[in-house]
Write a structure and sequence with these properties.
alpha+beta; 148 residues; Flagellar motor switch protein FliN; FliN_T3SS_HrcQb; cell projection; FliN-like_C; single chain; cell membrane; 30% helix
Length: 148
């Protein structure tokens, strides 16, 4: 990570920590216990569905393949909601038009990676930029099952 990346990560962690402390007296939602410190990279063994299976260390070749996979870029999307409208109504939209979404105000957003739901979260603002605090993360086993 570059110095700018480290600085930005520290700013986000500090801001989210402050926001979590400020809301601690509130609802105490699932997102308030999140640790935004440096996370250890997940090893392939953590994704094993059978916890009683033997955990042989990865060979050099396996680790090299895993490292290559870990560097693949993915697209992460936060979805507020969606709506279906006719082409006629679509063509009538102009500045100031309002499109009603199916989601209720206050409901968590969906967090998708390459179109697959991985978590739910809430919008936060840090340094005049939007971010998302994850409130409910789909388990690793469930996410892997969805990929198959």
């Amino acid at each position: 990570m570059s110095d700018n990346d480290n600085k930005l990560a520290e700013e986000w962690a500090a801001a989210l920590g402050e926001q979590g402390a400020a809301s601690a007296g509130g609802t105490g939602g699932a997102g308030s216990d999140v640790d935004f410190g440096e996370a250890a990279p997940a090893s392939i063994e953590q994704f094993n569905e059978n916890p009683t299976a033997s955990k042989a260390p990865l060979t050099r070749e396996e680790r090299k393949k895993l490292d290559a996979i870990m560097d693949i870029p993915v697209t992460i999307t936060m979805e507020v909601g969606h709506a279906k409208i006719s082409i006629r109504n679509l063509l009538q939209l102009n500045q100031g038009s309002v499109i009603e979404l199916e989601r209720l105000a206050g409901e968590p957003l969906d967090v998708l990676v390459n179109g697959t739901l991985i978590a739910h979260g809430e919008v936060v603002v840090v340094n005049d930029k939007f971010g998302i605090r994850l409130t409910d993360v789909i388990s690793q086993v469930e996410r892997i099952k969805k990929l198959r």
